[in-house]
Amino acid sequence: FKTDGTINIQADCNRGGGTYSKKGKQITIKVTHTTRAMCPPDSLDQTFLKDLNTVAIYLFNDGYLYLDLKFYTGTMRFRR
Q: What number is the average pLDDT over the span 35-46?
């Protein structure tokens, strides 16, 4: 997450980027571009990228960044 509202993404064997905007604890992430490398069959890169586009809320807790997905469909957790 960069201060200019852009993001860099590493999704398994692919890299990409996009934009984000936030208001309070609400956040919207839009993945706008990725490379198209063929990841291993068990890769979750496409699920990861799809889920990033459905993030609704973020919070920091105990050194982790949590991204809650819309409609209570899950939470992504990242180590800071």
A: 95
